[in-house]
Amino acid sequence: MPEMLRIAVPNKGQLSEPAVEMLREAGYRQRKSSRDLVMVDPDNETEFFFLRPKDVAVYVGEGILQAGITGRDMLLDSAAPVDEILALGFGGSTFRFAAPGGAGMTLEDLQGKRVATSFDEILRVHFAEKGIDARVIHLDGAVESSVKLGVADAVADVVSTGTTLRQAGLEIFGDPILESEAVVIRPRGAGEDPKVETLLRRLRGVLVARDYVMMDYDVHAEQLEDAVALTPGMEGPTVSPLHREGWVAVRSMVPRRQAQAIMDDLWEIGARAILVTDIYACRL
Ligand SMILES: Nc1ncnc2c1ncn2[C@@H]1O[C@H](COP(=O)(O)OP(=O)(O)OP(=O)(O)O)[C@@H](O)[C@H]1O
Ligand SMILES: O=P(O)(O)OC[C@H]1O[C@H](OP(=O)(O)OP(=O)(O)O)[C@H](O)[C@@H]1O
Ligand SMILES: [Mg+2]
To answer: What is the pTM of this model?
Structure first.
């Protein structure tokens, strides 16, 4: 048996499904049932371990697993000896203070108060940095209820849409404590590992395939420089001769979200036969 690459993946919660989906797009076999705790992918010599999201950094920090997917907030809260090596663009959230609406709280007002959170370590570090002496009350979840129930004076919690806070009658105050998203981690100080490098290259390929499209168009050679300025591509666009005298065909990657605006601009300078296609997979 070849040496297996061992990767930790969240087994439930907000990050689990999108992480599994991304690994599948990256060509890895993924679990069939959300109850599977281990999944072997022999073709890729990789084993996936489905662990509680907060535990991922612990396993990777101990060097038991060579890489893992978790939230940046969770990795920082674990204080495990791991490095973030790639941000994955999903599971975005901010970690923020909130208190009853209308109270007009500031960070300084937390001096001597009780603040409930599921991320004690992040909060303690933040208070230490800001010189605030407050009591951190650990709760495992549903932190928003703590103020109404009298367990805390304010909360520090994960905010995505803000709906949960609003429904609990709480209002954000102060600067964001942390911006988080799903990330790939590895043990701190780990040396180059060709299998981990392959995983990263594949995941970067998925990120590019999600964020970019391929654009093809024909343009008169006189307008080529203007057109290329609109579609500079990654390492410069491919330009090929067309049978039609004085015209060239151009092929370039462009950001998906700008594709329509770029097509409008290309049309304006006389480009025609402008086509956009999805990138199925890539290595850059
Ligand atoms: N809308 C969201 N709500 C909660 N977490 C989110 C959201 N969007 C992204 N995240 C991120 O997902 C992770 C939280 O995962 P999750 O809530 O599944 O774990 P958990 O709270 O420890 O687990 P559980 O809720 O099952 O006890 C964090 O990294 C957080 O930043
Ligand atoms: O800003 P929103 O879009 O409302 O999302 C944020 C909420 O989602 C998470 O809770 P989760 O569902 O993970 O439950 P938990 O409190 O048990 O962790 C988080 O802890 C907030 O409560
Ligand atoms: Mg949660």
So the answer is: 0.91
